[in-house]
User: Fold this.
Amino acid sequence: MSSDIRIAPDVCLFLLEDEGVFFAESRQELHLFNTPAAFVWCCLEEGLALADIATAYGTTFGVGPAEADHHVSSVLLTWQGLGYLSGAVLPGAPETHLTTALGWLLTNPSLRADFARSPADTAGTVRVRAADLEAFVTLDPDALEAQASGVARAGRRHGPARGSEHVLVSVSPSGRNVLELAAESRLRGIEVTSIRRYYGLLATRFSLRLASAAQEARVHPALAHLEIEKPAEVDVVLDVLEADGGHVLLEDLLPVGYCAVLDQLTPLVTFRVRQTAINRHPYFLAIHAGVVSNGEHCILLPGASGRGKTTLTAALSRNGFRYFSDEFALLEETTLQVRPVPLSLTIKRGAVGPLAPYYPGLEGLRMHLREDGRTVRYLSPAERSVGPERSHAVRWIIFPRYDADAVTSLRPLSRPEALRRLLRECLVLPDLLDRAGVASLVRWIRTVDCFELPMSSLADAVGLVKRHCGLSVAVNRDREGSRRCG
Assistant:
Protein backbone atom coordinates (compact mmCIF):
# COMPACT_ATOMS: atom_id res chain seq x y z
CA MET A 1 0.00 0.00 0.00
CA SER A 2 1.20 3.50 -0.76
CA SER A 3 2.37 5.28 2.38
CA ASP A 4 -0.03 8.14 1.57
CA ILE A 5 -3.35 6.45 0.73
CA ARG A 6 -5.04 4.39 3.43
CA ILE A 7 -8.15 2.22 2.95
CA ALA A 8 -10.73 2.45 5.74
CA PRO A 9 -10.74 -0.69 7.91
CA ASP A 10 -14.48 -1.42 7.51
CA VAL A 11 -14.71 -1.51 3.70
CA CYS A 12 -14.08 -4.30 1.23
CA LEU A 13 -14.60 -5.22 -2.42
CA PHE A 14 -15.70 -8.58 -3.83
CA LEU A 15 -15.14 -9.20 -7.53
CA LEU A 16 -18.14 -10.30 -9.59
CA GLU A 17 -17.25 -11.06 -13.19
CA ASP A 18 -15.60 -7.84 -14.46
CA GLU A 19 -17.20 -5.63 -11.82
CA GLY A 20 -17.21 -5.42 -8.03
CA VAL A 21 -19.53 -5.47 -5.03
CA PHE A 22 -18.34 -2.85 -2.55
CA PHE A 23 -19.40 -2.87 1.10
CA ALA A 24 -18.94 -0.21 3.80
CA GLU A 25 -19.99 -1.97 7.01
CA SER A 26 -20.22 0.91 9.49
CA ARG A 27 -22.63 2.78 7.22
CA GLN A 28 -24.37 -0.31 5.84
CA GLU A 29 -23.70 0.79 2.27
CA LEU A 30 -23.63 -1.66 -0.61
CA HIS A 31 -22.53 -0.45 -4.05
CA LEU A 32 -21.91 -2.07 -7.42
CA PHE A 33 -18.61 -0.81 -8.89
CA ASN A 34 -18.25 -0.86 -12.67
CA THR A 35 -15.12 -2.33 -14.27
CA PRO A 36 -12.93 0.84 -14.15
CA ALA A 37 -13.85 1.55 -10.52
CA ALA A 38 -13.20 -2.07 -9.50
CA PHE A 39 -9.85 -1.91 -11.30
CA VAL A 40 -8.79 1.23 -9.41
CA TRP A 41 -9.82 -0.25 -6.07
CA CYS A 42 -7.85 -3.44 -6.73
CA CYS A 43 -4.81 -1.30 -7.55
CA LEU A 44 -5.21 0.37 -4.17
CA GLU A 45 -5.37 -3.01 -2.46
CA GLU A 46 -2.19 -4.02 -4.32
CA GLY A 47 -0.47 -1.00 -2.79
CA LEU A 48 0.23 0.92 -5.99
CA ALA A 49 1.06 4.62 -5.76
CA LEU A 50 -1.23 7.16 -7.43
CA ALA A 51 1.04 7.66 -10.45
CA ASP A 52 1.32 3.91 -11.00
CA ILE A 53 -2.48 3.47 -10.76
CA ALA A 54 -2.99 6.14 -13.43
CA THR A 55 -0.41 4.49 -15.70
CA ALA A 56 -1.98 1.04 -15.29
CA TYR A 57 -5.45 2.53 -15.86
CA GLY A 58 -4.37 4.19 -19.10
CA THR A 59 -2.78 0.98 -20.40
CA THR A 60 -5.78 -1.19 -19.44
CA PHE A 61 -8.52 1.07 -20.79
CA GLY A 62 -6.66 2.63 -23.72
CA VAL A 63 -6.74 6.29 -22.67
CA GLY A 64 -4.02 8.92 -22.63
CA PRO A 65 -2.06 9.96 -19.50
CA ALA A 66 -4.06 13.15 -18.87
CA GLU A 67 -7.42 11.38 -19.18
CA ALA A 68 -6.25 8.46 -17.05
CA ASP A 69 -5.03 10.81 -14.31
CA HIS A 70 -8.35 12.71 -14.42
CA HIS A 71 -10.44 9.53 -14.15
CA VAL A 72 -8.37 8.04 -11.32
CA SER A 73 -8.16 11.29 -9.36
CA SER A 74 -11.89 11.90 -9.70
CA VAL A 75 -12.90 8.50 -8.32
CA LEU A 76 -10.31 8.65 -5.53
CA LEU A 77 -11.56 12.10 -4.53
CA THR A 78 -15.13 10.78 -4.28
CA TRP A 79 -14.04 7.79 -2.21
CA GLN A 80 -11.99 10.01 0.07
CA GLY A 81 -14.92 12.38 0.52
CA LEU A 82 -17.15 9.44 1.43
CA GLY A 83 -14.61 8.11 3.92
CA TYR A 84 -13.66 4.92 2.09
CA LEU A 85 -10.00 6.00 2.06
CA SER A 86 -7.83 8.83 3.35
CA GLY A 87 -4.44 10.45 2.79
CA ALA A 88 -4.73 10.96 -0.97
CA VAL A 89 -3.37 14.21 -2.41
CA LEU A 90 -5.17 14.72 -5.72
CA PRO A 91 -4.14 17.91 -7.53
CA GLY A 92 -5.50 16.55 -10.81
CA ALA A 93 -9.01 15.96 -9.48
CA PRO A 94 -11.87 18.23 -10.53
CA GLU A 95 -13.13 20.89 -8.12
CA THR A 96 -15.99 19.97 -5.80
CA HIS A 97 -19.27 21.88 -5.56
CA LEU A 98 -20.28 23.10 -2.10
CA THR A 99 -23.36 20.85 -1.91
CA THR A 100 -21.25 17.75 -2.60
CA ALA A 101 -18.62 18.77 -0.04
CA LEU A 102 -21.34 19.43 2.54
CA GLY A 103 -22.85 15.99 1.89
CA TRP A 104 -19.45 14.40 2.48
CA LEU A 105 -19.06 16.28 5.75
CA LEU A 106 -22.45 15.11 7.00
CA THR A 107 -21.75 11.43 6.27
CA ASN A 108 -18.02 11.16 6.97
CA PRO A 109 -17.01 11.47 10.67
CA SER A 110 -13.29 11.49 9.83
CA LEU A 111 -13.76 14.37 7.45
CA ARG A 112 -15.71 16.31 10.09
CA ALA A 113 -12.87 15.74 12.57
CA ASP A 114 -10.38 17.08 10.01
CA PHE A 115 -12.65 20.06 9.37
CA ALA A 116 -12.87 20.88 13.08
CA ARG A 117 -9.05 21.00 13.21
CA SER A 118 -8.56 22.98 10.00
CA PRO A 119 -11.37 24.00 7.66
CA ALA A 120 -8.88 25.41 5.14
CA ASP A 121 -6.83 22.18 4.93
CA THR A 122 -10.03 20.14 4.58
CA ALA A 123 -11.19 22.41 1.76
CA GLY A 124 -7.94 21.63 -0.03
CA THR A 125 -8.29 17.92 0.60
CA VAL A 126 -11.75 17.71 -0.95
CA ARG A 127 -10.95 20.28 -3.67
CA VAL A 128 -13.71 22.77 -2.81
CA ARG A 129 -14.07 25.14 -5.76
CA ALA A 130 -12.86 28.69 -5.33
CA ALA A 131 -16.32 30.23 -5.59
CA ASP A 132 -17.49 28.18 -2.59
CA LEU A 133 -14.36 28.39 -0.46
CA GLU A 134 -15.47 31.20 1.87
CA ALA A 135 -18.85 29.57 2.53
CA PHE A 136 -17.18 26.23 3.22
CA VAL A 137 -14.51 27.38 5.70
CA THR A 138 -17.01 29.45 7.71
CA LEU A 139 -19.27 26.47 8.46
CA ASP A 140 -19.80 25.86 12.19
CA PRO A 141 -18.25 22.49 13.22
CA ASP A 142 -20.70 22.07 16.12
CA ALA A 143 -23.69 22.73 13.87
CA LEU A 144 -22.31 20.23 11.35
CA GLU A 145 -22.00 17.60 14.08
CA ALA A 146 -25.57 18.20 15.25
CA GLN A 147 -26.89 18.00 11.70
CA ALA A 148 -24.93 14.81 11.03
CA SER A 149 -26.45 13.21 14.14
CA GLY A 150 -29.92 14.13 12.88
CA VAL A 151 -29.19 12.57 9.49
CA ALA A 152 -27.99 9.37 11.16
CA ARG A 153 -31.08 9.17 13.38
CA ALA A 154 -33.38 9.66 10.38
CA GLY A 155 -31.63 6.86 8.54
CA ARG A 156 -32.10 4.48 11.45
CA ARG A 157 -35.72 5.54 11.85
CA HIS A 158 -36.61 4.90 8.22
CA GLY A 159 -34.47 1.82 7.74
CA PRO A 160 -36.10 -1.61 7.46
CA ALA A 161 -36.57 -3.48 10.71
CA ARG A 162 -38.20 -6.86 10.94
CA GLY A 163 -40.76 -7.14 13.67
CA SER A 164 -41.33 -3.42 14.14
CA GLU A 165 -45.04 -2.93 14.73
CA HIS A 166 -47.38 -0.04 15.17
CA VAL A 167 -51.13 0.08 15.73
CA LEU A 168 -53.04 1.17 12.67
CA VAL A 169 -55.29 4.15 13.24
CA SER A 170 -57.82 3.78 10.45
CA VAL A 171 -60.89 5.89 11.22
CA SER A 172 -64.44 4.59 11.00
CA PRO A 173 -67.38 6.55 9.56
CA SER A 174 -68.24 7.65 13.10
CA GLY A 175 -64.79 9.16 13.57
CA ARG A 176 -63.56 6.63 16.14
CA ASN A 177 -60.12 5.14 15.77
CA VAL A 178 -59.28 1.46 15.68
CA LEU A 179 -58.52 1.32 19.42
CA GLU A 180 -62.00 2.61 20.29
CA LEU A 181 -63.63 0.21 17.86
CA ALA A 182 -61.68 -2.70 19.31
CA ALA A 183 -62.72 -1.75 22.83
CA GLU A 184 -66.37 -1.71 21.74
CA SER A 185 -66.02 -5.11 20.09
CA ARG A 186 -64.38 -6.61 23.15
CA LEU A 187 -67.38 -5.62 25.24
CA ARG A 188 -69.45 -7.98 23.14
CA GLY A 189 -67.17 -10.84 24.19
CA ILE A 190 -64.68 -12.51 21.91
CA GLU A 191 -65.74 -15.95 23.06
CA VAL A 192 -69.09 -15.58 21.30
CA THR A 193 -67.34 -15.92 17.94
CA SER A 194 -68.28 -19.40 16.79
CA ILE A 195 -66.31 -19.69 13.53
CA ARG A 196 -62.71 -20.80 13.86
CA ARG A 197 -60.16 -21.79 11.26
CA TYR A 198 -56.55 -22.85 11.60
CA TYR A 199 -53.82 -22.07 9.08
CA GLY A 200 -50.08 -22.64 8.79
CA LEU A 201 -47.56 -20.46 6.95
CA LEU A 202 -43.80 -20.92 7.29
CA ALA A 203 -43.40 -21.99 10.94
CA THR A 204 -46.36 -20.03 12.29
CA ARG A 205 -49.68 -21.65 13.23
CA PHE A 206 -52.63 -19.26 13.16
CA SER A 207 -56.04 -19.45 14.77
CA LEU A 208 -58.49 -17.20 12.90
CA ARG A 209 -61.73 -16.43 14.74
CA LEU A 210 -64.52 -14.80 12.77
CA ALA A 211 -67.70 -13.12 13.92
CA SER A 212 -69.95 -14.08 10.99
CA ALA A 213 -70.44 -16.48 8.11
CA ALA A 214 -70.19 -13.51 5.74
CA GLN A 215 -66.67 -12.78 6.97
CA GLU A 216 -65.72 -16.43 6.59
CA ALA A 217 -67.10 -16.57 3.05
CA ARG A 218 -64.82 -13.70 2.07
CA VAL A 219 -61.62 -14.69 3.85
CA HIS A 220 -61.41 -18.48 3.91
CA PRO A 221 -61.23 -19.17 0.14
CA ALA A 222 -58.00 -17.13 -0.05
CA LEU A 223 -56.44 -19.14 2.79
CA ALA A 224 -58.07 -22.55 2.32
CA HIS A 225 -54.95 -24.21 0.86
CA LEU A 226 -53.06 -23.26 4.05
CA GLU A 227 -55.64 -24.83 6.37
CA ILE A 228 -54.35 -27.27 8.98
CA GLU A 229 -55.89 -29.49 11.63
CA LYS A 230 -56.35 -27.87 15.01
CA PRO A 231 -52.81 -27.79 16.42
CA ALA A 232 -51.86 -28.63 19.98
CA GLU A 233 -50.47 -25.10 20.28
CA VAL A 234 -51.32 -21.94 18.38
CA ASP A 235 -48.66 -19.29 17.78
CA VAL A 236 -50.87 -16.35 16.79
CA VAL A 237 -54.59 -15.68 17.31
CA LEU A 238 -56.34 -13.38 14.84
CA ASP A 239 -59.84 -12.13 15.61
CA VAL A 240 -62.12 -10.43 13.11
CA LEU A 241 -64.83 -8.54 14.98
CA GLU A 242 -67.70 -6.33 13.88
CA ALA A 243 -67.85 -2.74 15.08
CA ASP A 244 -69.46 0.47 13.84
CA GLY A 245 -70.61 -1.21 10.65
CA GLY A 246 -67.06 -2.30 9.80
CA HIS A 247 -64.55 -4.95 10.77
CA VAL A 248 -61.72 -4.79 13.31
CA LEU A 249 -58.72 -7.12 13.08
CA LEU A 250 -56.98 -8.06 16.34
CA GLU A 251 -53.74 -9.96 16.72
CA ASP A 252 -53.43 -11.60 20.13
CA LEU A 253 -56.14 -9.18 21.34
CA LEU A 254 -54.27 -6.08 20.09
CA PRO A 255 -55.93 -4.04 17.32
CA VAL A 256 -53.91 -4.05 14.10
CA GLY A 257 -56.42 -2.97 11.43
CA TYR A 258 -59.88 -1.86 10.46
CA CYS A 259 -61.87 -1.88 7.24
CA ALA A 260 -65.26 -0.37 6.56
CA VAL A 261 -66.67 -2.95 4.13
CA LEU A 262 -66.50 -6.71 3.64
CA ASP A 263 -64.82 -6.37 0.25
CA GLN A 264 -61.74 -4.98 2.01
CA LEU A 265 -61.49 -7.70 4.64
CA THR A 266 -59.58 -10.40 2.75
CA PRO A 267 -56.68 -8.11 1.75
CA LEU A 268 -56.46 -6.95 5.37
CA VAL A 269 -56.34 -10.46 6.81
CA THR A 270 -54.05 -12.02 4.19
CA PHE A 271 -51.58 -9.16 4.51
CA ARG A 272 -51.48 -9.68 8.28
CA VAL A 273 -51.01 -13.43 7.95
CA ARG A 274 -48.16 -12.92 5.51
CA GLN A 275 -46.37 -10.23 7.50
CA THR A 276 -46.73 -11.98 10.83
CA ALA A 277 -45.41 -15.28 9.47
CA ILE A 278 -42.47 -13.57 7.76
CA ASN A 279 -41.63 -11.47 10.82
CA ARG A 280 -41.49 -14.63 12.93
CA HIS A 281 -39.24 -16.45 10.44
CA PRO A 282 -35.45 -15.95 10.33
CA TYR A 283 -34.12 -15.03 6.88
CA PHE A 284 -31.29 -13.12 5.22
CA LEU A 285 -33.13 -11.08 2.61
CA ALA A 286 -36.67 -10.59 1.26
CA ILE A 287 -36.98 -9.88 -2.47
CA HIS A 288 -40.08 -8.65 -4.32
CA ALA A 289 -40.37 -11.61 -6.67
CA GLY A 290 -42.45 -14.50 -7.85
CA VAL A 291 -40.90 -17.92 -7.22
CA VAL A 292 -41.47 -21.30 -8.83
CA SER A 293 -39.49 -24.53 -8.70
CA ASN A 294 -38.79 -27.29 -11.20
CA GLY A 295 -38.73 -29.76 -8.30
CA GLU A 296 -35.00 -29.37 -7.67
CA HIS A 297 -34.14 -25.70 -8.05
CA CYS A 298 -35.94 -22.36 -7.90
CA ILE A 299 -36.53 -19.64 -10.45
CA LEU A 300 -36.77 -16.09 -9.10
CA LEU A 301 -38.97 -13.72 -11.10
CA PRO A 302 -38.27 -10.28 -9.56
CA GLY A 303 -40.01 -7.10 -10.59
CA ALA A 304 -42.05 -4.11 -9.60
CA SER A 305 -45.83 -4.10 -9.87
CA GLY A 306 -47.04 -4.18 -13.46
CA ARG A 307 -44.05 -6.03 -14.90
CA GLY A 308 -45.95 -9.31 -15.22
CA LYS A 309 -44.24 -11.38 -12.52
CA THR A 310 -47.47 -12.65 -10.93
CA THR A 311 -49.01 -13.46 -14.31
CA LEU A 312 -45.92 -15.41 -15.38
CA THR A 313 -45.71 -17.14 -11.99
CA ALA A 314 -49.34 -18.22 -12.25
CA ALA A 315 -48.91 -19.53 -15.81
CA LEU A 316 -45.73 -21.45 -14.95
CA SER A 317 -47.48 -23.00 -11.93
CA ARG A 318 -49.99 -24.44 -14.42
CA ASN A 319 -47.21 -25.83 -16.64
CA GLY A 320 -45.34 -28.28 -14.45
CA PHE A 321 -43.62 -25.89 -12.07
CA ARG A 322 -44.32 -25.83 -8.35
CA TYR A 323 -45.62 -22.63 -6.87
CA PHE A 324 -43.61 -21.00 -4.07
CA SER A 325 -44.80 -17.38 -4.03
CA ASP A 326 -46.05 -14.58 -6.26
CA GLU A 327 -44.77 -11.77 -4.04
CA PHE A 328 -41.91 -12.71 -1.70
CA ALA A 329 -38.67 -14.56 -2.20
CA LEU A 330 -37.29 -15.27 1.27
CA LEU A 331 -33.58 -16.04 1.08
CA GLU A 332 -32.74 -18.19 4.06
CA GLU A 333 -29.95 -17.38 6.48
CA THR A 334 -26.60 -18.99 5.67
CA THR A 335 -27.68 -20.98 2.59
CA LEU A 336 -29.63 -18.24 0.74
CA GLN A 337 -32.00 -20.95 -0.45
CA VAL A 338 -35.65 -19.94 -0.92
CA ARG A 339 -38.44 -21.07 1.37
CA PRO A 340 -42.03 -21.34 0.03
CA VAL A 341 -44.47 -18.62 1.10
CA PRO A 342 -47.45 -19.98 -0.87
CA LEU A 343 -50.23 -17.50 -0.22
CA SER A 344 -52.89 -17.20 -2.90
CA LEU A 345 -51.80 -15.39 -6.03
CA THR A 346 -53.09 -11.81 -6.20
CA ILE A 347 -54.54 -11.37 -9.68
CA LYS A 348 -55.19 -7.83 -10.88
CA ARG A 349 -57.84 -6.97 -13.43
CA GLY A 350 -55.44 -6.80 -16.40
CA ALA A 351 -54.10 -10.33 -15.82
CA VAL A 352 -57.50 -12.07 -15.94
CA GLY A 353 -57.65 -12.28 -19.75
CA PRO A 354 -54.10 -13.65 -20.31
CA LEU A 355 -54.54 -16.21 -17.51
CA ALA A 356 -58.03 -17.38 -18.53
CA PRO A 357 -56.68 -20.23 -20.75
CA TYR A 358 -54.70 -21.55 -17.78
CA TYR A 359 -57.42 -21.01 -15.14
CA PRO A 360 -60.87 -21.29 -16.77
CA GLY A 361 -62.74 -20.32 -13.59
CA LEU A 362 -60.64 -17.25 -12.85
CA GLU A 363 -63.13 -14.67 -14.09
CA GLY A 364 -65.79 -16.04 -11.74
CA LEU A 365 -63.70 -15.56 -8.59
CA ARG A 366 -64.89 -12.95 -6.12
CA MET A 367 -63.29 -9.51 -6.40
CA HIS A 368 -61.79 -7.78 -3.37
CA LEU A 369 -60.91 -4.16 -2.76
CA ARG A 370 -57.41 -3.37 -1.57
CA GLU A 371 -56.46 -0.34 0.47
CA ASP A 372 -54.76 1.19 -2.60
CA GLY A 373 -58.12 1.19 -4.43
CA ARG A 374 -57.30 -1.70 -6.79
CA THR A 375 -59.67 -4.63 -7.21
CA VAL A 376 -58.03 -8.06 -7.12
CA ARG A 377 -58.94 -11.73 -7.19
CA TYR A 378 -57.26 -14.30 -4.96
CA LEU A 379 -56.27 -17.40 -6.88
CA SER A 380 -55.65 -20.35 -4.60
CA PRO A 381 -52.84 -22.50 -6.04
CA ALA A 382 -53.65 -26.05 -7.01
CA GLU A 383 -52.59 -28.42 -4.24
CA ARG A 384 -50.26 -30.36 -6.50
CA SER A 385 -48.48 -27.20 -7.65
CA VAL A 386 -47.61 -25.89 -4.19
CA GLY A 387 -43.94 -26.26 -3.37
CA PRO A 388 -42.75 -28.51 -0.54
CA GLU A 389 -41.95 -27.05 2.84
CA ARG A 390 -38.21 -27.45 2.38
CA SER A 391 -36.16 -24.69 0.82
CA HIS A 392 -34.69 -24.95 -2.68
CA ALA A 393 -31.53 -23.45 -4.12
CA VAL A 394 -31.94 -20.65 -6.67
CA ARG A 395 -30.61 -21.66 -10.08
CA TRP A 396 -32.08 -18.95 -12.29
CA ILE A 397 -33.09 -15.30 -11.92
CA ILE A 398 -35.36 -14.02 -14.70
CA PHE A 399 -36.57 -10.41 -14.80
CA PRO A 400 -39.92 -10.39 -16.66
CA ARG A 401 -41.11 -7.19 -18.31
CA TYR A 402 -44.44 -7.05 -20.08
CA ASP A 403 -44.41 -4.88 -23.21
CA ALA A 404 -47.15 -5.23 -25.81
CA ASP A 405 -44.66 -4.31 -28.57
CA ALA A 406 -41.77 -6.50 -27.40
CA VAL A 407 -40.45 -9.62 -29.09
CA THR A 408 -40.72 -12.28 -26.39
CA SER A 409 -37.18 -13.49 -25.76
CA LEU A 410 -34.98 -14.77 -22.96
CA ARG A 411 -31.82 -12.64 -22.93
CA PRO A 412 -28.70 -13.37 -20.85
CA LEU A 413 -27.92 -10.76 -18.21
CA SER A 414 -24.58 -10.21 -16.52
CA ARG A 415 -24.51 -11.09 -12.85
CA PRO A 416 -23.48 -7.58 -11.75
CA GLU A 417 -26.43 -6.08 -13.63
CA ALA A 418 -28.74 -8.76 -12.23
CA LEU A 419 -27.54 -7.97 -8.70
CA ARG A 420 -28.18 -4.26 -9.29
CA ARG A 421 -31.74 -4.99 -10.36
CA LEU A 422 -32.26 -7.53 -7.60
CA LEU A 423 -31.21 -5.09 -4.88
CA ARG A 424 -33.73 -2.57 -6.25
CA GLU A 425 -36.40 -5.17 -5.46
CA CYS A 426 -35.11 -5.80 -1.93
CA LEU A 427 -38.10 -5.39 0.41
CA VAL A 428 -36.60 -6.18 3.80
CA LEU A 429 -33.10 -6.63 5.17
CA PRO A 430 -33.96 -7.76 8.69
CA ASP A 431 -30.49 -7.51 10.20
CA LEU A 432 -27.42 -5.38 9.71
CA LEU A 433 -25.14 -6.62 6.95
CA ASP A 434 -21.61 -7.69 7.76
CA ARG A 435 -18.65 -8.65 5.59
CA ALA A 436 -19.48 -12.35 5.81
CA GLY A 437 -23.07 -11.68 4.69
CA VAL A 438 -21.95 -9.69 1.65
CA ALA A 439 -19.39 -12.36 0.77
CA SER A 440 -22.19 -14.93 0.98
CA LEU A 441 -24.39 -12.84 -1.33
CA VAL A 442 -21.61 -12.55 -3.92
CA ARG A 443 -20.85 -16.30 -3.77
CA TRP A 444 -24.57 -16.98 -4.20
CA ILE A 445 -25.04 -14.80 -7.29
CA ARG A 446 -22.01 -16.47 -8.90
CA THR A 447 -23.95 -19.76 -8.96
CA VAL A 448 -27.06 -18.28 -10.60
CA ASP A 449 -27.80 -17.86 -14.31
CA CYS A 450 -29.45 -14.49 -14.95
CA PHE A 451 -31.79 -13.34 -17.72
CA GLU A 452 -34.27 -10.67 -18.67
CA LEU A 453 -37.54 -11.61 -20.34
CA PRO A 454 -39.31 -8.93 -22.35
CA MET A 455 -42.65 -10.47 -23.27
CA SER A 456 -45.73 -9.66 -25.28
CA SER A 457 -46.96 -13.28 -25.40
CA LEU A 458 -47.50 -15.15 -22.14
CA ALA A 459 -47.58 -18.51 -23.94
CA ASP A 460 -44.22 -17.82 -25.62
CA ALA A 461 -42.71 -16.69 -22.33
CA VAL A 462 -43.88 -19.88 -20.61
CA GLY A 463 -42.42 -21.95 -23.44
CA LEU A 464 -39.03 -20.25 -23.19
CA VAL A 465 -38.82 -20.73 -19.43
CA LYS A 466 -39.92 -24.36 -19.69
CA ARG A 467 -37.29 -25.13 -22.31
CA HIS A 468 -34.51 -23.42 -20.39
CA CYS A 469 -35.42 -24.26 -16.79
CA GLY A 470 -37.48 -27.43 -17.05
CA LEU A 471 -36.82 -30.68 -15.25
CA SER A 472 -34.68 -32.02 -18.10
CA VAL A 473 -32.18 -29.18 -17.93
CA ALA A 474 -28.85 -30.24 -16.53
CA VAL A 475 -27.51 -28.07 -13.75
CA ASN A 476 -24.01 -26.74 -14.40
CA ARG A 477 -22.68 -24.85 -11.44
CA ASP A 478 -20.43 -21.87 -12.06
CA ARG A 479 -17.06 -22.63 -10.51
CA GLU A 480 -15.88 -19.03 -10.57
CA GLY A 481 -13.38 -18.35 -7.78
CA SER A 482 -14.19 -16.32 -4.73
CA ARG A 483 -11.09 -14.14 -4.53
CA ARG A 484 -11.80 -10.54 -3.66
CA CYS A 485 -9.37 -9.00 -6.18
CA GLY A 486 -6.91 -10.20 -8.81
